[in-house]
């Protein structure tokens, strides 16, 4: 295992300590329970919090700040946080207008957030939850744990964060969040595995000419293993199921999000974006907004995911609204 | 000799040791069909439980078990944290204010634990989860006691059934938790949560057997 | 070689095409000769251009936009661009107030920029050049090609870009650029090598327990190979030579830049930042500004570099000034 | 038989083929002490030269060489682009308007090429660069001609000297270019630029020899 770390069990805390110093103007980091909270919390607005396992940086801690999240709760690497964290974060950001929990659809995340929400409710805080589940790699999910929440989570946090900042109430925030989730779809693939520090070895092994298609964001194997293919074929493999699932239609305006899994350089992401743009053009779908970079990652995994979000005017307005966080910033 | 708080403490200590010893195995099982954290998760949780035990050593069994569950909820995370946490909390609620427990109480506690896991996780038997170890364990326990076996023998039978149940998850298609995302590829691997449940039952069997040997 | 590409010889052009679509609001991409130019060029100010081999993304193309570069010239992967590119870019951004060339100190870059500057001068355009050479890994460089230009280049492009935007003349821009270069020092290390697409195999090989210390940004081996070490020791190995070289002194205020080599996830960069912050605190050096992320990279190489820049008030003001490029954005 | 434009074209074609054939070798040499692009750089440049040749086929030798140099400058990049580009441009300037060239002209052209490389790159012999192949090549050429050898034989001697010069870079400590950043670690590897220079000389020797065989 080759990593820039000291001891595997201290990775999360030490990285949080670094974040706290690097972004002291934007965030405070609270330890035991661990959470990252926006400077000056609570604010006079709906509080928006998220959380999940660590190893997906910049998500979620990198999205805490003006116009996005009020707090983020980082668990151990790939392990959903515990209710104590979400409870403490919920209390810290509750400005009296209620708190929205943004949860990715994984059994652990859902259960831990649920327990926190119950505890917060017991303390008289109004909590609403939205669960993202945009990963089309998981088919026929009716009888299982359902689809995973992946790339859409990033877009949703920005959009609902802007709504909350603009004064939307809790019910409205929840409705917007659900609309974003309902109109977004994602799929990802990996060229290489990644290594959970405490596990010490990669989650799976791939030959030089193999890739995993339909992966999530936890270093797990994907839906299937395939021979390595050119970028344009990989782009088809990911975009096809996404487009067919919603389905996206000729004339749609979308936000096209090409996301790196952590170890893929920007030059490859822009190349993949070029392939995606070509596919969308062929289908007469307009790219109204785009995002290219490593935003929801699996440690050092090499790979890419596509997320498409069908936009409406309100979503565009909220996407364009000012945001100031460690990882996303514009308009201020 | 009835089961006392000391026995419960002994059980939890044995459980922590077994989990720690099998930490890498549990993580490897989770790497195959999950996210490679189950060993580290439970090891962290049980280490926290052991650290907390002295603060409740003079309390009743229910309090010890509830504290165990709450500690697990607060330190494990992931799916197994709320599931095992709820299991211990429910078992503790079933034994509230009790300082001793009989064979029947052990059954009651395990039933409450299973109910808690199912209430939280909604898994049916056959979906490749810890439920597939706990359900046969409970059946074996009830059957052995009905057949007149001692508690020690009966819990040993339950532990064996849990282990068999864990192994029986190998050919199953996962329908719950993270392994379900793998679809068909989840087949052929043993479920990590069922495996850790089998270790917990083994720790319980060790405690109950020792109790009988001492008697 | 595992990469998200089609054919090795098309990587640069296809990535540029993707950039052009993704950032159509900020930049235009010109092909043959290849250069990325700020929308609406030329502007009524000193033009600021840079360039170098591709594979270092987001540098330089990701820094084209308001308040930073007016154009960037991308060569083949790790190959400095040709004079035709810099000549065309220089003409495209020349608003009549002259053009500053920002060149990293590599023989190829220096010679190709020199030839372009001669050609531009022959066409009556006033050109000034600054050569960055901040890499302290290269010692005793008097009789050799000198020190490499690395991390300071990013900071310099931001700072001098702000000065040009604010109306500074060519001589002033050059003087500021030289001051930044003179007060900045860097050093880097690699956990893994990287693969030039056209070469098809890694530039060097490293065992599971080895690392290269004193690397540049071209996938080349470093000054020495060492046993893998904990993050805190690696931080000392990099920060020590940097601090001693300028030397930085108790009471200095610095910009601390922790840069990923492309394949290192943010969680490790923040952890390394935490180590650097500790070292600086011990020496009573204040971190006045910081930057953490993958900004000047070597394809998918895993590793990190530190850059420290001793700040003065003018540099801080220019650093804080609004910037709007694909990779760096604030204040607007 | 004097050297004509056709021979120069033949030389450039042979050079392009040799570089293409040894592309991976040049890249591997560059990977060891540089950035693994020398083979791809020159292959791209000479392919562009070959594509451009038809547009100057009816021109004088000076024009062909200058066009070659300018094409290399415009397509190669890196250190070798300006260096080889300047070499060819300077050689072309030395032979401006010439349609034929003698043995002495070949010496003149190579001297001009070397001057161009040194003017651009400021390398001294012994600093582990292409200069370490070109300098001995030029010395061997002059010596062979002075000893009364034919041009074909003399250029063959020059090519052999260039190859020996390239090999002699192995123990050298790099003082110029990217390899200098490696310090002591540059020792023990052959310089890629010196190696490509040896291939260019070999291409020239092939052309001059064939000319004599035809004569
Ligand atoms: N809905 C569920 N019901 C019962 N057990 C479950 C459920 N979901 C997951 N599990 C159990 O949890 C185990 C995984 O635990 P762990 O790895 O600690 O959490 P995570 O999956 O969040 O990483 C699985 O092996 C399975 O036995
Ligand atoms: N200053 C110089 N003078 C002469 N030759 C040089 C000089 N610098 C580099 N070279 C030659 O250039 C070769 C490298 O060329 P290439 O790999 O194409 O460019 P780069 O080093 O920019 O990647 C070296 O092997 C060396 O022979
Ligand atoms: Mg997990
Ligand atoms: Mg797990
Ligand atoms: Mg190069
Ligand atoms: Mg090279």
Which features characterize this protein?
heterotetramer; A: 332 residues; alpha/beta; Rossmann fold; Hypothetical Protein Tm841, Chain: A,domain 3; 2 domains; six-stranded mixed beta sheet; 8 helices; 32% helix; 23% strand; B: 215 residues; mainly alpha; Serine Threonine Protein Phosphatase 5, Tetratricopeptide repeat; two-stranded antiparallel ribbon; 9 helices; 69% helix; 2% strand; globular; binds adenosine-5'-diphosphate; binds magnesium ion; DhaL_dom (chains B, D); glycerone kinase activity (chains B, D); Dihydroxyacetone_Kinase (chains B, D)
| Low-confidence spans of chain B | none
Tell me what portion of residues of chain B adopts beta-strand conformation: under 5%
Q: What is the tally of beta strands of chain A? A: 14
Side-by-side strand order of the widest sheet of chain A? 1-2-4-3-5-6
Number of separate domains of chain A: 2
CATH architecture of chain B: Alpha Horseshoe
Topology as H/E string of chain A? HEEEEHEHEHHEEEHEHEEHEE
For this structure, what is the CATH class of chain B? Mainly Alpha
> What ligand species are in this complex?
adenosine-5'-diphosphate, magnesium ion
The CATH superfamily of chain B turns out to be DhaL domain
pLDDT averaged residue by residue of chain A: 96
Largest sheet of chain A: 6 strands, mixed
Domain DhaK (chains A, C): 7-330
Keywords (chains A, C): Glycerol metabolism, Kinase, Transferase
GO molecular function, one term (chains A, C): glycerone kinase activity
Catalytic activity (chains A, C): dihydroxyacetone + phosphoenolpyruvate = dihydroxyacetone phosphate + pyruvate
Could you characterize what this model shows?
Chains B, D: This is Dihydroxyacetone kinase. Chains B, D: InterPro entries: DhaK_L_YcgS, DhaL_dom, DhaL_dom_sf, Dihydroxyacetone_Kinase. Chains B, D: One of its GO terms (biological process) is glycerol catabolic process. The complex is a heterotetramer, with two copies of chain A (332 residues) and two copies of chain B (215 residues). With 332 residues, chain A is of the alpha/beta class. Chain A has helices at 11-22, 83-93, 107-122, 152-165, 170-182, 231-245, 266-282, 313-320, and strands at residues 27-30, 35-38, 47-54, 71-77, 99-104, 127-132, 184-190, 210-213, 224-227, 253-260, 286-293, 303-310, 323-324, 329-330. Chain A starts with 10 loop residues before the first helix and ends with a strand. With 215 residues, chain B is mainly alpha-helical. Chain B has one domain: Serine Threonine Protein Phosphatase 5, Tetratricopeptide repeat (Alpha Horseshoe), CATH 1.25.40. Chain B has a two-stranded antiparallel sheet. In chain B, helix 1 packs antiparallel against helix 3, helix 5 (80-94) runs antiparallel to helix 6 (103-121) and helix 8 runs antiparallel to helix 9 (192-214). The interface between A and C is large, with 59 and 59 residues. The structure holds adenosine-5'-diphosphate (2 copies) and magnesium ion (4 copies). One magnesium ion (MG) sits between chains A (53, 78-79, 108) and B (35, 37, 78). One magnesium ion (MG) is lined by residues 30, 34-35, 37-38, 78, 178 of chain D.
